[in-house]
Every structure is written in C-alpha cells, then in structure tokens.
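To the structural biology subgroup,

Please find below the input and predicted structure for Dienelactone hydrolase, which we are adding to the shared reference set this quarter. The sequence is reproduced verbatim from the submission form. If anyone notices a discrepancy with their own records, reply to this email rather than editing the shared folder directly, so we keep one authoritative version.
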Amino acid sequence: MAETKAQFAGWTCEPFTAGGFTHDVYRKGSGPGVVLIPEMPGIHPGVLELGNHLVANGFTVVMPSLFGTPGAPAVSAGSLMALASGCVTKEFAAFALNKKRPVTDYLRALARDLNEQTPGPGVGVIGMCFTGGFALAAAVDDAVLAPVLSQPSLPIALTLAARRDPGMSELELTEVKRRVDEDGLCALGLRFSEDAMAPRERFTTLKNRLGDAFEVIEINSAPGNPDGINRFAHSVLTDQVVDRPDHPTYQARVRVVEFLRARLSTPTA
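Predicted structure (tokenized):
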C-alpha cells in the first residue's frame, strides 16, 4: 500500500459517475485538460509515467481506472485477469463490430467535466491498446478537440472485418467526420508497423474516412529495422519508449505533446 501511495504522489483520486458507470479517477497537474485512458491491464507504472510526463509538459491529466489494480505491474497474474474480464465486459464490447461501446458515454462526460475545470477551448483524450479507439469515439463530443489513438486494438482483430473495423459505430464515425468537415477536428494515430493487435487495415479505414485530418505515425518494427525495435512491439507511448531524442518512440511522444498543445491552446486576440 505504501509503495502504491508513493507511485501516485501528487495525484488525487475521486470517483466519477456517468452513463451508468462509476470509476475512480486520478488527477494531477494544471493547464489544458487531457483524459488519459489506461491501456490493459490498467494504470500500470508505464501509464503512470506517461501521465507524469504530460503533467510535466503543462497539462492537467485525469486517468479513469477502468480495469485492473492501479499501480500494479503491466505483466502479472492480475493483468491476465484484467484482460479476461475486459474481453467479456459489456462496457467495452471487445469483439463487436460497428458498435457504440457503452464506456464512451462515460468518457465523453468525463471530458466535458474536465473541460469545465481547465483552461483552453477543449480537452485532449489519449486512448491506448484496448482503449485506443475510445479516444476517437469520445470526439463525438464538442469538448474533445485532440483525440490520440495509440495502437487501437478493439475490436479484437480475429477476422478481416474486425481488422478493418474503426472501433466505433458508423453513427459515431459519421459524427466525427462531420466535426472534421465543419469544425476542423483532427486526430493523431500511432502504431508499430508489425503490430497485429492494432492492424494497419483499421488505420486505412480511418484514413479513408477522415483524410488529412487523421495524422498517422507508423514506427518501423519490421525485422532488421535500424532502431532494433522488436517486431512484437505494441505500446508506443509507454513500455516501448526509449528515452533517446533520436529514437522514433521518443519522437512520437514529442509529437503527441506538440499535437495537444497546438489543439488545446487558447486563441490569442
């Protein structure tokens, strides 16, 4: 318990209820708001480090604890239980195609609440892995101005149709497209080139629908790549980050911060 408290030094934690769900939400920082949605198996040390990185770059960060045990390691017996539970929970609809996922109503409400409490014209939302597509689905709400999809993995890519599925319903994607056309909404997507869990076909679908408004960062993880990245690499913004300015994962983090700053800055008179 003491170790967990030390990990979360400076973070506050309060429950937040919306859309029929209640989850603890961790908060830290000041400045424009960013909803950081944890990847599986929860707010593990890599996710927490990313949250602290965003806080250090001038953002107010909130992290909803949607699954798992906050502070627990990314790989453990508990992580397997969190994954198994997430795959069968109706809140996430892990296998469903053309599906509005119930958790997105909760995340939109959380984004609105954060927007009301922070400066700037709107908030950013970062989703990763299991939650990657939730970030773009949250952008149905006008409060979300900077969705970031890192290795979006739902629906689980067991078939070609699942690999092509954008991770949200057609109604949601149509509304996001409307916001692109009418409001200038932009999104950022990240993946490793050989990551089968976040298939290239999903990015192709989103690129075809959103055009230049969907910026894609694809990091080479093919065998023999010049950066020595393992072909099974998955977590672009957390566990696979190399703290070296010339490394593509470091540069991807830099670009995420630039994207958030540009989209969430208050226009000058």
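Summary notes: The domain at 2-73+86-264 is CATH 3.40.50.1820 (Rossmann fold). The longest helix spans residues 248-264.

Regards,
Lab coordination
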